[in-house]
Design brief:
Alpha-Beta Plaits, 8 helices, about 10% strand, transmembrane helix, transmembrane
Length: about 300
């Protein structure tokens, strides 16, 4: 993402905090009306959404800081730390929910004002669903792990909230109050699963995971189509650091080729890759033909 778009990403992250606060307030009202431990667990997850949104806002702000002497490759990995912390918070929320669910299981209680409470909870779920879809699309389109992770977490909240509403409708119609704590436990387990996914994906980024197979195929094709005059490319390596993509490879050229000619080939390849992946950082090592690893094989 171009650095000029930094204010947009910050506004999205800030808006996520505001929306999380609104949804939390709505869900808490639903819990107060009903006394449902399942709705309480739903509201508790929204508290995590608020904290996670604040962390994401911090991470996005840091990630857009320009490179400096201490961080010559920039600060884009800050977003991975945000996603890891969010995953830990998700797990903590799940454990708290399980504790509440166990207490309600030992002492089941009737649900008060179920219709009003469920309608209010439904409003919060709709708000979350719309915002989660937007965050996921924005995060993917702008290669922002923090915003994408926030969207996935909120979407998990949507799924669990929907299940809670459905289950409480059944509990109200049948009088099976035991469904309330059981639903809360299901919510907790689902949150645990999502937390594990968020942490795992973020750790992969911190470990300099390569770009996906489809993107690498596009990189290879782009290099091949723009490397006229070169003999071979080898040792292609890629990695992601938040929204930043790093591409590195060795370009073999004829031994008699001038530095100026080889530089023109490099410029052509670099421009094509940066057009394909906005903001890609390309490093090309030019080598003479006696360094070729696959004699007789054309570029890629």
């Amino acid at each position: 993402m171009p650095e000029a778009n930094a204010p947009i990403a910050k506004r999205v992250a800030a808006a996520s905090v505001v929306i999380a606060l609104v949804v939390l307030a709505i869900k808490y009202v639903a819990y107060i009306l009903t006394g449902s431990v399942a709705l309480f667990s739903d509201a508790l997850e929204s508290i995590v959404n608020v904290v996670a949104g604040l962390i994401a806002l911090w991470a996005v702000t840091v990630s857009y800081k320009p490179a400096d002497n201490d961080h010559p490759f920039g600060h884009t990995k800050a977003e991975y730390f945000s996603a890891v912390v969010e995953g830990v918070l998700i797990v903590l929320a799940a454990l708290l929910i399980l504790r509440e669910a166990w207490g309600a299981y030992l002492e089941p209680r009737a649900i008060d004002a179920p219709v009003e409470g469920l309608l209010i909870s439904g409003v919060a779920t709709v708000i979350n669903a719309v915002w989660a879809v937007y965050l996921i699309r924005f995060g993917r389109g702008h290669r922002s792990p923090a915003i994408a992770a926030d969207g996935r977490h909120i979407m998990t909240d949507v799924v669990t909230s929907t299940g809670v509403v459905f289950g409480l409708v059944v509990a109200t119609l049948t009088g099976w109050t035991i469904l309330d704590p059981l639903l809360a436990a299901v919510v907790a387990l689902n949150i645990l699963w999502e937390g594990a996914r968020v942490v795992t994906s973020s750790l992969s980024g911190l470990m300099d995971e390569a770009i996906d197979t489809d993107s690498e195929a596009k990189v290879r094709e782009t290099i091949s189509c723009n490397a006229e005059g070169a003999l071979e490319v080898h040792d292609l390596r890629t990695r992601l650091a938040g929204r930043a993509m790093f591409i590195e490879f060795h370009l073999v050229v004829p031994g008699k080729m001038t530095v100026a000619d080889s530089h023109r080939i490099c410029d052509r390849i670099e421009d094509a890759l940066q057009e394909l992946f906005t903001g890609a950082r390309v490093l090309i090592h030019v080598e003479p033909e006696d360094e070729a690893k696959q004699t007789g094989v054309p570029v890629l």
